[in-house]
Amino acid sequence: MYQEDEFLPISALQHLIFCERQCALIHVEGVWEENRWTVEGHHLHERVHRGDGESRGDVRIARALALRSFRLGLTGMADVVEFRREESASGNDVWIPYPVEYKRGRPKPDRCDEVQLCAQALCLEEMLKVKVPVGALFYGKTHRRTDVSFDRELRALTEQTAARLHLLVTTGRTPAAAYDKKCDQCSLRDMCLPKTTSGRRSAKRFIAEALREAGGSEVTG
After folding, report:
1. H helices of 19-111, where?
2. What separation in angstroms does the CA of 38 have from each of 35, 48, 105?
3. Chunked mean pLDDT (size 10), the chain, 221 residues
4. H/E element, 179
5. How far is CA 33 from the centre of its chain?
6. Rounded to whole angstroms, how far apart are CA atoms 154 and 87?
7. 0.85 surpassed by pTM
8. Would you kindly state where each structural domain of the chain is located, as residue ranges?
9. Domain formed by 4-174, architecture
10. Does the CA dihedral 118-120-124-127 come out positive or negative?
11. CA atoms in the 13 A half-sphere facing the CB of 32
């Protein structure tokens, strides 16, 4: 069990899976920079969070719901949680949470979004003492939901990622850069400098490529 002063953001799980160095820059060194994609993401979340809760038949909708888990040491906010009425085995009505996380882009090749959503489900289970079997990711580019089942494999990955996150922050060490194509869309690219510090190329080659990108002449000789 973690104490409240040890809580880390649920969103950091996504950062960790995307890139350990990015995660450390943000959550260890306190570095942040916006770009087009992060700004669009903020605007999407603001639109989703706007307004009060509402009821639609057997569904009650909560927006910007605060979450926390002492077991995982996480805190954050769910964009939307739909509480869906179901009849229990005893004949009584129960309200089952169905978290929905909004993303500006498209489904990703890794499981970072699913882990973030699953962490929200685990928080809800701990807070409300109820099983949360499924949720959804809504992607702005496709304008549709993708259902996510919180199966044993995803739950284990989420718990392992939370443990890795706490270890990363506790050690306070920022991993070395390793350039990848996804670096080009990262808002921290100019501070991380993955092409400069990854150690994969000579200084001469880096300067040549930097000049080409800037429209200058290639270094020769």
Report:
1. 20-27, 36-49
2. 5, 15, 11
3. 96 93 90 60 59 81 96 96 86 91 88 97 97 95 92 98 96 86 80 67 46 50 38
4. none
5. 16
6. 27
7. no
8. 4-174, 176-221
9. Alpha-Beta Complex (3.90)
10. positive
11. 9
Bridge partners of 137, per DSSP, are 101, 146
Distance CA 163, CA 153 (A): 16
Contact between residue 163 and residue 183 where contact means Cβ atoms under 8 Å apart: no
How far apart CA 84 and CA 99 sit, in angstroms, is: 11
The single-letter code of the amino acid at 181 is K
User: Would you give the distance in Å from CA 159 to the centre of its chain?
Assistant: 14
Cβ partners under 8 Å of residue 74, min gap 6: 7, 8, 9, 10, 13, 67, 68, 119, 123, 162
Q: d(Cα 220, Cα 110) in Å, to the nearest integer?
A: 39
Tokens (6 digits) for 198? 């990854």
C-alpha R_g of the chain:
21
Determine how many CB atoms are found less than 10 A away from the CB of residue 28: 15
Spatial distance between the Cα atoms of 185 and 208, rounded to a whole number of angstroms? 21
Per-residue pLDDT at 212 = 63
Tokens representing 221?
A: 């000789």
Beta pairing class for 74-87 and 8-9? parallel
Please report which residue ranges of 87-151 form alpha helices under DSSP H. 112-128
pLDDT of residue 141: 83
